[in-house]
Write a sequence for this structure.
């Protein structure tokens, strides 16, 4: 077998080892791993509602995965998908709430989506500009911007926009809500899976074409692989860094729209639940490829929702450990694979 | 005299690739034994086996009569083998004496270091072998030639009796090379065994006693250096006769294309790298810039390609057919009709992970003829790729799938030249180190293409640290020293002196050091 095929196997090895480690931890916590996995499998993929839950989570994960993957193509590590998601969510909720109720869905939904994407893109753009203009390491910049985003949204929510005695904003107007599959076609019964999925597939395809089949992508990947050579070739590497960050942020913003417009219909404190960080794992497992991301998002979507469904048997904390360990294993294996092959 | 190193039937395989196959070689004690061969012929693998960095797949290594099974260089060092690497293994911040004892301190954790012993050794050996260097100077303050002496002193301090030199002259000036050779000879005369790895045939003939030629992982012959000529060695290396010097028909230069007038360059740190540099290049001529690296070549190239670091101060001017190119961006300069092959091919000229076809496009991807919609016109690119591959003899298996990194250095450089020489409407070609790291066989092709470009009327500025190359190709030669042209040889002088190449090299050498 040549090394290229072997490289494709790496993700599967890492998942296999993650499965083994998880089994061990579940057993140590006093449960039967086989029973737990069976329950999880049934709860996630065994019922239409479960599948809908997975699809809903997967949609956000694909988008935050793209938020990490696109900048990764120019060798920037966007740790800030979480912050970009928060800003996008808040923007979507605010726009949705102030739009007049009479506005038709055909305008209201795109407006809300665009404001979410703009907020996410703008937040990521800041990190890009700091990197290119002042040489601030993007990892540090995006982490700090995460805290700032948390602060801003928290402050605005608590002191200005929260409905008294709740931790969420007012509901968005009905016409700004993205319909669920349940309401349109009756699929996935009452699950939060909504039509954002279609948009997400479109966005991922668009990124794929942009990266691998356009002149823009040719330049962008070259700038990522060898920035100095790109300069010799007359490519503006700094511009590409900033664009890649912004595109990533816009994807995260769209992920926020999925949650706010398609499910919650308002902004709520802690609603993202750190899913932006899982995006890092999603992107790494997929090798930052815009289409493979669907597969890795599906895996993490199952894990996330499956973890919730077995709460009765195994504590949530144990599942947090399992998920984080899985991410670590995935990252270690991909690093190991790069060194060996 | 005994046999210092004897290899019998040594093979080394990496996966399915045989880097060395069935090599048998005897290196006599007290001789200078050269190992020559093209890049990828297996020289490095063989020396790494002797130095314990690789273990042979099969075969036997005998060092001074004792079978050796080294698992790491540490074992080899114990057995009296030392190596001077192409890239020096020195700690820049430490002094010469500290570097020499490093890794061989012979002292307890808090015990005193044998610095005095090292200094005494330096003084003693300096005289014996011509290795003069100040023991207290920090290594960072030494010239490249002096740093190499420190490496040799390190081996002497460890009492190595077999010394391996990996391409030791690649970084040296002509006079430093002469001094190194004197050192090598005196080491041999004191009974040390020297194994010299190189691809420069002149050097082999000048200093070695015995030459082994490698090709495709095998030793194709071992001969006394006194009994062979340069063309014979080249033929053994490549497997066919090679033209060592391309024919360079008399040029008839036309109008001035590039005019550099009193160009000065100050780095952001305030160091002056170019000082009132003045030269001009005419259509249909090759202007060769001879000089030791670090005399302003890089800065000149940066200024001419719009890549001076932010904060550099450039004064004076460089014009292309009357229009200034200083301060413009690379893409703008390219549009004016300038092509450029950078000094550092791997870092600047190519994207190693991109395919050969994508690399043939790199930097020219803005040309409309390659476009289709938002992307590229695959058919145009395919026919262009095929044309370049056949015209430049680029050896590859599948140009639209193979990454460039899979090619040999020579073929990579052919990709770069094919791309740059065929830019539409160019009038000036800037070539920096066009054959660095390139095999003899490929050098022939590349030199022919450069001469062809000149004949077609391009103005060519050639920057090379290989004097041989400068002499073979140039119409006029400017000797660059400390940022200005110290001496210029006219067209007539170059044509005349080219006949006595060795004398000419020495004469140029005087102007650049």
């Amino acid at each position: 077998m040549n090394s290229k095929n072997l490289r494709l196997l790496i993700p599967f090895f890492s998942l296999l080892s993650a499965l083994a480690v998880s089994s061990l931890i579940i057993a140590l916590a006093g449960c039967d791993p086989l029973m737990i996995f069976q329950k999880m499998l049934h709860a996630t993929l065994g019922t239409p509602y479960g599948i809908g839950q997975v699809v809903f989570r997967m949609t956000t994960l694909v988008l935050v995965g793209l938020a990490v993957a696109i900048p990764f193509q120019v060798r920037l590590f966007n740790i800030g998908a979480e912050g970009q998601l928060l800003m996008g969510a808040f923007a979507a909720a605010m726009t949705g709430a102030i739009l007049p109720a009479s506005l038709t869905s055909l305008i209201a939904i795109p407006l809300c989506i665009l404001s979410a994407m703009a907020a996410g893109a703008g937040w990521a753009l800041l990190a890009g500009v700091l990197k290119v203009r002042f040489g601030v390491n993007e990892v540090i910049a995006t982490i700090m911007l995460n805290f700032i985003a948390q602060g801003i949204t928290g402050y605005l929510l608590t002191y200005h926009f929260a409905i008294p005695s709740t931790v969420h904003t007012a509901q968005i107007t009905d016409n700004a809500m993205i319909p669920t599959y349940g309401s349109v076609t009756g699929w996935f019964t009452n699950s939060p899976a909504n039509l954002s999925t279609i948009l997400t597939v479109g966005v991922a395809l668009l990124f794929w074409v942009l990266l691998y089949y356009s002149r823009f992508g040719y330049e962008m990947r070259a700038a990522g692989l060898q920035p100095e050579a790109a300069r010799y070739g007359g490519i503006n590497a700094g511009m590409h860094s900033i664009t890649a960050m912004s595109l990533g942020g816009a994807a995260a913003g769209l992920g926020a729209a999925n949650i706010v417009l398609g499910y919650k219909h308002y902004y709520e404190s802690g609603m993202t639940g750190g899913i932006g960080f899982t995006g890092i794992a999603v992107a790494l497992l997929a090798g930052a490829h815009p289409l493979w991301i669907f597969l890795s998002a599906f895996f993490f979507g199952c894990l996330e929702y499956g973890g919730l469904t077995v709460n009765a048997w195994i504590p949530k904390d144990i599942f947090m450990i399992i998920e984080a360990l899985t991410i670590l294993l995935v990252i270690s294996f991909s690093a190991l694979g790069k060194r060996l092959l | 005299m005994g046999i210092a190193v004897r290899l019998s039937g040594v093979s080394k395989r990496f996966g399915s690739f045989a880097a060395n196959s069935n090599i048998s070689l005897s290196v006599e004690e007290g001789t200078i034994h050269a190992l020559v061969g093209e890049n990828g012929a297996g020289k490095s693998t063989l020396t790494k086996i002797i130095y314990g960095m690789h273990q042979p797949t099969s075969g036997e290594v005998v060092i001074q009569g004792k079978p050796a099974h080294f698992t790491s260089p540490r074992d080899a060092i114990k057995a009296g083998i030392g190596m001077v690497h192409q890239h020096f293994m020195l700690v820049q911040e430490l002094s010469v004496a500290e570097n020499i004892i490093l890794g061989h301190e012979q002292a307890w954790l808090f015990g005193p270091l044998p610095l005095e012993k090292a200094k005494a050794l330096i003084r003693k050996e300096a005289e014996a072998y011509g290795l003069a260097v100040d023991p207290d100077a920090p290594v960072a303050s030494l010239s490249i030639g002096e740093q190499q002496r420190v490496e040799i002193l390190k081996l002497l301090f460890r009492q190595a009796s077999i010394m391996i030199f990996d391409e030791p002259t690649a970084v040296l000036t002509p006079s430093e090379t002469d001094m190194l050779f004197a050192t090598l000879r005196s080491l041999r005369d004191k009974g040390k065994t020297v194994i010299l790895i190189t691809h420069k045939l002149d050097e082999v003939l000048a200093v070695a006693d015995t030459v082994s030629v490698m090709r495709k992982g095998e030793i194709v012959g071992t001969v006394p250096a006194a009994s062979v000529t340069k063309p014979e060695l080249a033929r053994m290396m490549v497997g066919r006769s090679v033209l060592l010097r391309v024919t360079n028909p008399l040029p008839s230069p036309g109008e001035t294309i590039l005019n550099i007038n009193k160009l000065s360059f100050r780095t952001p740190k305030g160091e002056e790298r170019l000082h009132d540099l003045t030269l001009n290049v005419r259509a249909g001529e090759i202007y060769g810039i001879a000089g030791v690296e670090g005399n302003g070549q890089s800065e000149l190239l940066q200024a001419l390609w719009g890549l001076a670091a932010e904060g550099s101060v450039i004064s004076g001017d460089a014009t292309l057919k009357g229009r200034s190119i200083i301060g413009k961006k690379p893409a703008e300069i390219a549009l004016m009709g300038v092509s450029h092959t950078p000094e550092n091919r791997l870092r600047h000229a190519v994207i190693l992970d991109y395919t050969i076809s994508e690399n043939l496009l790199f930097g020219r991807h803005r040309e409309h003829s390659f476009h289709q919609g938002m992307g590229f016109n695959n058919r145009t690119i395919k026919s262009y790729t095929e044309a370049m591959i056949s015209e430049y003899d680029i050896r590859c298996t599948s140009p639209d799938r193979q990454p460039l990194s899979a090619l040999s250095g020579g073929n990579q450089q052919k990709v770069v030249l094919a791309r740059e020489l065929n830019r539409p409407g160019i009038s000036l070609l800037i070539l920096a180190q066009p054959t660095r790291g390139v095999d003899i066989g490929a050098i022939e092709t590349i030199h022919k293409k450069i001469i062809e470009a000149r004949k077609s009327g391009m103005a060519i500025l050639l920057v090379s640290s290989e004097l041989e190359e400068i002499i073979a190709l140039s119409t006029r030669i400017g000797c660059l020293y400390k940022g200005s042209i110290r001496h210029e040889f006219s067209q007539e002088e170059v044509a005349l002196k080219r006949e006595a190449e060795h004398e000419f090299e020495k004469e140029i050498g005087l102007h650049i050091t």
Remarks:
- The mean pLDDT of chain A is 90.
- The radius of gyration of chain A is 20 Å.
